Protein 1
Amino acid sequence: MTVRSRFFTEAEGQAVGIENAGAAGDVLLVCEHASATVPQRLSTLGLSPEVLSSHVAWDPGALAVARLLSEKLDATLIYQRFSRLVYDCNRPPESPSAMPVKSEVYDIPGNFDLTEAERFARTSALYVPFHDRVSEIIAERQANGRKVVVVTIHSFTPVYHGRFREVEIGILHDTDSRLADAMLTGAEGASLTVNRNDPYGPEDGVTHTLRLHALPDGLLNVMIEIRNDLIADEGEQANIAAFLHELMGKALASIDE
Amino acid sequence: MTVRSRFFTEAEGQAVGIENAGAAGDVLLVCEHASATVPQRLSTLGLSPEVLSSHVAWDPGALAVARLLSEKLDATLIYQRFSRLVYDCNRPPESPSAMPVKSEVYDIPGNFDLTEAERFARTSALYVPFHDRVSEIIAERQANGRKVVVVTIHSFTPVYHGRFREVEIGILHDTDSRLADAMLTGAEGASLTVNRNDPYGPEDGVTHTLRLHALPDGLLNVMIEIRNDLIADEGEQANIAAFLHELMGKALASIDE
């Protein structure tokens, strides 16, 4: 029984969720903020049910859209089964937002004064196995001569610190903008407001997963941010997934040419 | 092939070394700075052979003394098989000295400007499996109703930043000083200079292993620092091991009473 295996109850299972593992497509979908679930041992982290079901705890709608894309693209999907408030898998352990004491305007009491042992337990149970698994999937495919395209799926709140965000879809990238550029070109004239590195970008430390898994080997990559009021129900999720599927398909085809 | 398994060559093996795994004694010996070995993929870290064999890269003599104590105490010994310069397992990932860019007066070029992917690889390959394994050993023993006493073995350089250190044995502790107190009492009048939290102490962030594995469950614990000029050869190592064995035996007996 390692720290990792003792962190969760038997019923809770482990941190990493994988769907469509045998998919043939090049795209690997990653969803770090898929879930609002807090492991039993951490109870509610001191938060109200409202905050615990809000964007503070997860990216509402992101997993649903990622699942639809997984089908459409025949893409493997890997996601984190627990809340970003326990460990934000899109942040390295040295980032204050890996186990945040505050998120937007909300204090996170369950993250106050974490001991080194508590931080280690979360790092070992949530962060390291998640990215070990992503890297394992990528390495296996590379060993088989397959291409890999890393696409992370996120959602963002329409109102942040009281300010409304006009952007509807953010196409985010780090130093490698090939896929993002192609998607932004494809989105010109679209009915949705699609912006580059908006509502935030690499300077805000949000491209950790891309930095871990795409940049070192030069894999095509993009981080997609969807305003969460646009994916509040299944119909909307299907519309956005269809939009992104077309955009990504055209972009990847244009890069292949 | 995870990040972890790909970090080392097949010949290098993995990060954690264990000796006397089936030992019946209560003490669990931990040696985080046992080795000066740098994994092949990191070459020399840009350092000269002199620096790479100095206290900068490891705690000279510590593993040898720990092995002697392992025999004398019938204690399991767990040690890190690679240099502290690759990852210092007595530091959390958020500490600047986990992957230091400078150690004493020496720049560590191989640690300059590490990417997030490089930091993750070291955290995943060296730090997490080491402490997962320590915690696993402790949990197994606790599940079997056994007592566990956590003792970490270190050495320090006699001259640091040009200043000679008078202390010969440091008995270090964090908030739980029971075993350290008993050992310091036992060392009164000894021929060696044995000091509390000297040449450094918990305020310097050196008690990470104790904080991870001993403090949460209230296990007896101590960190032993030996001036490395006193354990430069086998005869000296045997003398110091005998001294520490007696000191620890008496201290543990006095606490049991």
Protein 2
Amino acid sequence: MEVGAVVFDAYGTLFDIDALAPQCESLWPGKGKAFVDLWRAKQLQYSWLRSLMASYVDFDVITAEAMVGACKVLDLPCDVSHIRSFLKIIRTLQAFPEVPALLKALGGRKRVILSNGSPAMLEATVGNNGLSGEIDLILSADTVQVYKPDPRVYQLVVDKLAIEKERIAFVSSNGWDACGAKRFGFWVSWVNRMRSPLDELGVVPDQILSSLAELPGYL
Amino acid sequence: MEVGAVVFDAYGTLFDIDALAPQCESLWPGKGKAFVDLWRAKQLQYSWLRSLMASYVDFDVITAEAMVGACKVLDLPCDVSHIRSFLKIIRTLQAFPEVPALLKALGGRKRVILSNGSPAMLEATVGNNGLSGEIDLILSADTVQVYKPDPRVYQLVVDKLAIEKERIAFVSSNGWDACGAKRFGFWVSWVNRMRSPLDELGVVPDQILSSLAELPGYL
């Protein structure tokens, strides 16, 4: 198979969510990691539930609602200033160290981001990491008003690039996203940095890597 | 509003999931509670993800897949005999103590179960609790091959009973299910036994109770 495009998930795949924890210490001293873990779990849950309930709101809103939900459980303060600060922190999320060299190495191919994030969030985060020149296209679930793993989100890539789905390499660190993309029909690489067990969703990715740095050798 | 039917969620609402933990001690000594907590989280997650991925399998399969997923994370053994035993245990799930008297007290109205469970699971669990005579109708997500909170599941009640949705009282202990049902248009009572914060999904139930025993006084 000749790969026509390499499509990356953003949060957790190109950008390091765990790196948020130390930054959140300034908002909730001693609770940064507990907050980030629960906030992320709720962010995903809310994105799936709102997709099923057909009550889409954009990913900034999901992010803020998940903050409120997590803070209630953890009994942490969460007013407008916390939300404003956190949405700023999210936009400066750091890329994993191997990302700039990886994107350069893939320079001959279309390099695409497909994410649940809103276009504004994604543009800001890519720009803040100095990667605007290394990403050819940013696609957001916002266009179809539903979140991954709904197949309409993955279909965005096919519609935009006009490449058969089997020739699209999809790369994600989120196991459920890798499974959703595989079920849709992409060739899928799961970047399993934590060596976690794969969730049992009836499909398995084509490839499992322990870091994005391994990817160019396989394409 | 005159209530035309009272519709109950099953797992966690009429039947006590936490009561599984001691029974699971025989399968995984010392790990019963850890297993039940993670298994339940994955069972919900998988039901939502498979609904979004349009790859429905019935709730016995979801249940078994969530067992495998949870056991991998917890490093517990999970072979065919564990799965067979657990699926049997699920069918003998105990009703909360207030349930028989509650259902009798509601006897003048249609008493319905609407659950993600497969028809066979639900019939068995209702029967094993001696409640077959107190439930007028069992409806399963299996009919529409997608799980709650997809509106097609809640619509099953409207189609089957031919009652306007505003006249249907929907009762669930699962906050996300209460929100899904409210978004759909039912009158919703959330039974919040653990006094947990409500998840932030853009809707709130009409009523919050701390036990099912309070319900008849409000209808």
